[in-house]
Every structure is written in structure tokens, then in C-alpha cells.
């Protein structure tokens, strides 16, 4: 017998979903980094800016991605704070987080791939720094409440962890 009932959208399920998305993206980067490091036989560390265009490109994209992720995230969050619907707020928050994560994951993946092609540990270090920053962005109930600037009613509804979000 099939169960076609929709899954209840509760604060608990929402926090679990966004946490799983965050963790899956981080684990993918960490595993890819580890596998890349283990298969590359010749490792070296070089900051020679003249011979490799990627020595300037990867750090520039990493810094640009970090700034862009924060800028777009803050802009999206600013748009969400005025919404009356708790469900709209938290769904918008999830979208803002995914965009933020993508803007960090792209440069990290580029760093890992460039390391695989060159063997230069500099690129893996850049990816590692992005991964560490990415880890600090772990979504928590408190961060969500603080970022979305919930009204008293919204905060009360969000604190009822097993109640359906409306």
C-alpha cells in the first residue's frame, strides 16, 4: 500500500534537511580533497606567480566567492526579514544558504582540481581554507532565528519543534 501523504514540514525536519545539505557538501569536498591528495604522487608548494595563471586565478576566485556568498546571502536575508509567513521565511533561508554554499563550493572544487593537475599544494591549501570557512557556516536553530529576525509569533511557532510550519 502506497503512502502518498506529504511529509510534515516541521522546524525539526527543516533544520535536519538544511543540516544534511550543509554536511553533504562539506563531506564531498573533504573526501574529494583526501582522494586527490592520496593519488597525487608529486607534491610541491610554489607561489611562482609568473609561470602559472592559476596561482592568481584560484585565490582570486576563492576570495571573490567568499565575498559574493556573503553579499548575496545578506541581501536575500534582508528581503526575507519583512515576510509575514514563517514557511516563506524558512524556505527563503534555505535557498539563500544553498546559494551561499554553491559560491564557496565552486572555488574550493576549482582549487582541488587545479591541485590534481599541477601537484601544487598551494591550491589544496586554498580549498582547505574554504572548507574550514564553510564548516563555520553550519546552520543551527539559533543562527536561523537570529538571521531571520523572527517576530515573537514566528519565534514561538519555530520553537514548537514538532509542529507543522504554516
Strand and helix layout:
Layout: H1 11-39, H2 54-80, H3 86-118, H4 121-136, H5 141-148, H6 152-159
Helix pairs in contact: 1-3, 1-4, 2-3, 2-4, 3-4
Would you give an account of this structure?
The protein has 166 residues and is mainly α. 73% of the residues lie in helices and 0% in strands. It has six helices and no strands. It has helices spanning 11-39, 54-80, 86-118, 121-136, 141-148, 152-159. Helix 1 runs antiparallel to helix 4, helix 2 (54-80) runs parallel beside helix 4 and helix 3 runs antiparallel to helix 4 (121-136). The longest helix has 33 residues, at 86-118. The radius of gyration is 20 Å and the shape is elongated. The two termini are 29 Å apart.
Question: Main attributes?
Answer:
mainly alpha; 166 residues; single chain; elongated
Mean pLDDT: 92
Number of E-state strands = 0
Low-confidence stretches: none
Biggest β-sheet description: none
| Gyration radius over CA | 20 Å
Put simply, the count of helices is: 6
Helix content: over 70%
Q: How much β-strand is present in the residues? A: under 5%
* Span of the ends, CA to CA: 29 Å
Structural class estimated from helices and strands? mainly alpha
The helix-strand sequence is HHHHHH
Global morphology: elongated
